[in-house]
Amino acid sequence: MIDLSTAAPVDIARFFEAVAAGVVVFDVDEAHELRLVCSNRSFRSMYGLDHEADVWCSIQDFLEPKIQEHYLQQFQVCIEKKISVDDEFPLELPGNISWQRVRMVPVFGEDEESIPRVFATSIDISHEKELEEELAIVSSRLEAIVDSTYDAIISIDGRHTIKTFNQAAEALFGYTRKEMIGKNLDILLPQSARPKHAEHINSFGNSPLKSRPMETRVEVAGLRKNGNTFAAEVAIAKIRVHGEVEYTAIIRDISAQMRLLEELKLRATTDPLTALSNRRHLVEMAQMEMERCERYDHPLSLLALDLDDFKSINDTYGHAVGDEVLEALGKVLKKRSRRLDVPARMGGEEFCLLIPETTLEQAHGLSIRLLEDIRTMHHGIPALAERVVTASIGLAAYHEGEHEFDRLVQQADEAMYEAKNSGKNKVCLAATDRRLTPDSIAQPA
């Protein structure tokens, strides 16, 4: 094996001539100047040298000033720190610009301290630089696209560490990109959602699916920096990067859509004036309650209520005051209702109260209390002065085998009209139920 620290220039030149990389060997003189020992053909070709310079000539005698500058900077570090030094620089030759990567290696003497020689290898990395530039352009384009999208885009690795956080994500979550890169995704999720979300991600990672688009979306909750949560819609894709799975999610804030859906649902099921259920919602809830009664033999009562002489209130005080009366009645019904009860406005001044888990005796007691509340409503409506509002109530109970809610409504209505026709401001039971009810409440109250 050749000893680079002492070998003759001709032997070193012969040793490196077959090497594909450019190689140049320098002697280090007492003044720490670099003097040429030899260079191989590849080196001379790279640097535009048509022949080998004289042995022991100074570096200034055979390399261009700009090239010298790079070599001398590397040499200074190499000598001071006694380590190999890498550098990259553009090499400008007539009609050609290329990039070179140079590694300068110290050759230690026998004392293992002094550095009598250094040698440098040089390779052309122009193609690599071109690829890096193209990659940088592609990355810039991709970053511009990612940052210009309306939706938040976040990518994470297999440990759920955030790798990408675009401008829309900054706006959505309130964090800057600098704050989030390298952090765990959990910081963007409510505490209660973290275990389930991690399970979902891992399950998706183990599945054969490459992506899960918005059409098959999973709705999750996001957590902003200020502590507020929001409803989110997420599409997710996965790729392999250096053998590991990475996930990219497109996240959209759907809070506004959810509020709109809730509002539409509310409008579809609620009377706008009284905020009670409308007839449609009452029927839906009643069908479920009747099925439950049929299955478990539980009691169910229905209260039908109609305000007495309501037309005269509208005619005397105006429809605005009439609306106040209806709103006040809605509040009374809500106040007297439990969470499982369904108070509803059927139309005009007609109301119903679906009362699950309640016998007729219990419903009768509730009806009496409602009549008392209604008689005091005028105290909260200044325009009525001393005009007392009253109502007539009809009660009907669900019986096994009755599958039509309309039939139950009809029975309660008939009892309510009997109350109205027999003096108003009272409660009457449906004809079918009177025969099955104690005399204490069977008669109009």
Q: What does this entry look like structurally?
A:
With 445 residues, the chain is of the alpha+beta class. It folds into three domains: 117 residues, PAS domain (Beta-Lactamase, 2-Layer Sandwich); 109 residues, PAS domain (Beta-Lactamase), CATH 3.30.450; 173 residues, Alpha-Beta Plaits, CATH 3.30.70.270. The protein has 15 helices and 16 strands. The strands form three sheets. Strands 6, 7, 8, 9, 10 and 11 form a six-stranded antiparallel beta sheet that branches. Strands 2-1-5-4-3 form a five-stranded antiparallel beta sheet, sandwiched between helices. Helix 13 links the parallel strand 15 and strand 16. Helix 10 packs across helix 11. The radius of gyration is 44 Å and the shape is rod-shaped. 29% of the residues are buried. The model has no long low-confidence stretch (mean pLDDT 88).
What's the overall average pLDDT, rounded?
88
Percent of residues in beta strands = 25-35%
Main β-sheet description: 6 strands, antiparallel
Gyration radius over CA: 44 Å
Overall geometry? rod-shaped
Brief write-up:
The chain is α+β, with helices and mostly antiparallel strands and 445 residues long. The protein has 15 helices and 16 strands.
